[in-house]
Amino acid sequence: MPVDLVALDLDGTLLDPQDRVSPRNRRAVRAALEQGVRIVLVTGRGVDMPIALSKELGLNLPVICAHGALTKDFGANRTLGHIPVPLRYAKPMVEYAQRHGLSIAVYTEERFHRLEGSAIHMQEMAGPAWREVQSLTEVLSEAPTFLRFLGRESVAAMEREFSDLPLHYKYESWGDFVECAVTSREATKQRALARLCADFQISRERVLAVGDSPNDVPMLRWAGIGVAMGNASAEVREAVAYVTAGNAEDGVAVAIERFVLQPRRGVEKRLA
């Protein structure tokens, strides 16, 4: 069955270890678009970078951000879906973090907040969408899209105090650095992608999804063709039908070439 839509995670997937889109990945994306295939970015990041990258690549669908909590039609500048963290859970978490000096960021749709003078743990936190505030509680007039605890100490403190709340906790690590994104339990990449496909009347059987993280697995297993990156953990690779090359070896391009540009039957589990 032909592929009508390709869903791509960003970090560890479309982006290489230097946070760039390789020339081969760009060519594969462009060729798929020229065949009329829709491509959507599905990421844990806030909206700024995915929107900028979608425009740069000439993509033709809204972006799914914040681990599925926010779907944004950047062409029409409207929000298609927003599943925030309920205030009854978010407010005590933010108040506790601020009181104990934990490193935390609060995302409210397209606005990202950190405390004045707090550490900038990654380059993206100095971008134009970020605002420094004197008190994070002042931005909680509305339920936040998601919370992000940064660093081992902050993540450990959050776990001790709040891990029993009915929320989703999504962990990522890069070397010694650990972070945890906290979202509504209803917010997942798979659910957001399924809603978007329903809007465009695209069946799951015609979806190719590529990712590398445990939180990508439900999306990969939902799609007609789910492909794990070669740099993914063994747990992720074993959970899906196909494994492509790593993000340093153009794994996204390998998957698109095999299933979209040169489709063939009887593809082996390991693509490269």
TL;DR of this structure?
This protein has 9 helices and 14 strands. With 272 residues, it is of the alpha/beta class.
Fold topology:
Elements: E1 5-8, H1 10-14, H2 23-34, E2 38-41, H3 48-57, E3 63-65, E4 70-73, E5 78-82, H4 87-99, E6 104-108, E7 111-115, E8 130-133, E9 146-150, H5 152-162, E10 167-174, E11 177-184, H6 189-199, E12 207-211, H7 217-222, E13 225-228, H8 234-239, E14 242-243, H9 251-261
Parallel strand pairs: 1-2, 1-12, 7-8, 12-13, 13-14
Antiparallel strand pairs: 3-4, 4-5, 6-7, 6-9, 9-11, 10-11
Helix pairs in contact: 2-9
Q: Element order, helices and strands?
A: EHHEHEEEHEEEEHEEHEHEHEH
State the CATH superfamily name of the largest domain.
HAD superfamily/HAD-like
| SS elements, strand count | 14
**What is the arithmetic mean of pLDDT?**
92
Helix content: 25-40%
Q: Give the CATH architecture of the largest domain.
A: 3-Layer(aba) Sandwich
> Would you tell me which CATH topology of the largest domain applies?
Rossmann fold
Kindly name the structural category: alpha/beta
Q: What can be said about the biggest beta sheet?
A: 6 strands, mixed
- Which CATH first-tier class of the largest domain would you pick? Alpha Beta
